[in-house]
Prior knowledge:
By secondary structure, the protein is an all-alpha fold. It folds into 4 domains: 2-162, Alpha Horseshoe (Serine Threonine Protein Phosphatase 5, Tetratricopeptide repeat); 173-258, Serine Threonine Protein Phosphatase 5, Tetratricopeptide repeat, CATH 1.25.40.10; 263-349; 351-387, no CATH class. Helix content is 73%, strand content 2%. The chain has helices at 2-23, 28-46, 50-63, 68-80, 84-95, 102-119, 122-134, 139-152, 156-170, 175-191, 195-208, 213-226, 229-242, 251-260, 264-277, 281-295, 297-310, 314-325, 330-348, and strands at 353-355, 361-362, 378-380. It has a 3-stranded antiparallel β-sheet, with no helix packed on it. α1 (2-23) packs antiparallel against α4, α16 runs antiparallel to α17 (297-310) and α17 (297-310) runs antiparallel to α18 (314-325). The longest helix has 22 residues, at 2-23.
Amino acid sequence: MLELLWLLLPVAAASGWFAARRSRARAPARTAGLSSDYFKGLNYLLNEQPDKAIEVFVRMVEVDGETVETHLALGNLFRRRGEVDRAIRIHQNLIARPTLSREQRTQALLELGEDYMKAGLFDRAENLFLELIELNAHTERALRHLLDIYQQEQDWEQAIAMARRLQELTGTRMHDVIAQYYCEMADRALKERDTSQAQQHIKRALSFDRDCVRASMLQGELELQHGDCKAAVRAYRRVVDQDIEYISEIIAPLRRCYLDMGNRPAFMAFLREIVQRCDAISPMLALVAEVRDQEGEDRAGDLMVEHLRRRPSVRGLNWLIEQNLAHSTGEARDDMRILHDLTTQLLQDKAVYACHQCGFTGKQLHWQCPSCKSWNTIKPIQGVVGE
């Protein structure tokens, strides 16, 4: 309700200003009528009766058809309230007036474009924003809206063009976002088995952002498709230096590469190096699995206990319980079973990834946050129940 009050205040202010201006040129009786409506609308607002306030201000707009500012404010209000059809009608009527100044017309075009976006009419919105750019009016907002449209339509080439223009206009660094657009095209090419296009897009992504983890992961996937495990290992290991928080994403494909090359000791050496550099649980789980196979369960269990003392982890504890459960009997086994069920249930209910921008959480890695639409902000969750 408070938000609506603030949205309506510009309408009230614009109406009041126009009423005051016209009061100097019209008869006293007319002035009194306008003043009464204006204060009646404000009274409705203060008493948290926005619907009645809107009725009053709409009536004032109808009486004072030349109040462009009031029309714009009212149309904006309807759009924010979800009444997009009414907002579109108001802004279309404004644009049809031949007496509008250039500034008023471009503002109405911008508002109408935002109406169309809200209604999901992207083609109409796109045409209006392109027109504004040609007119060199509201260019930054138009570019940002076009960028949003092309992202939603997955037209990545157009998105790249808009991002580069926005970067030139505002000085805002867009390199990491542009790299993600190239990754989107590379991912699509990989799915279509177009390895040549995929390679080109990956190179372009890394040229814009040398620390683009996603590009390195796509490079590793591409090399695996070609059967070049050595090149895939180089690509995946590059992630460690780009952002080690994504280490959990590359362990499985790296293991596959090393096993295909018949070089399991190199994989173990890599894991030992990583557990010295970070306390994440995923490389430790991979390491104890390898140690258990080659050196026995006791040595693997000792490694996990040592890790848990340094860095408590529900996933690590769950692994340790599983190992003890296999060798327990009687009442001890029942107790272990209860503990295992508890830790398993706790892990099942927890998200794996979180957005550092808005706090969105989920069990799937998104390179663009589904909530705030930011790029490069979702990472594996760290901590006792995470990595």
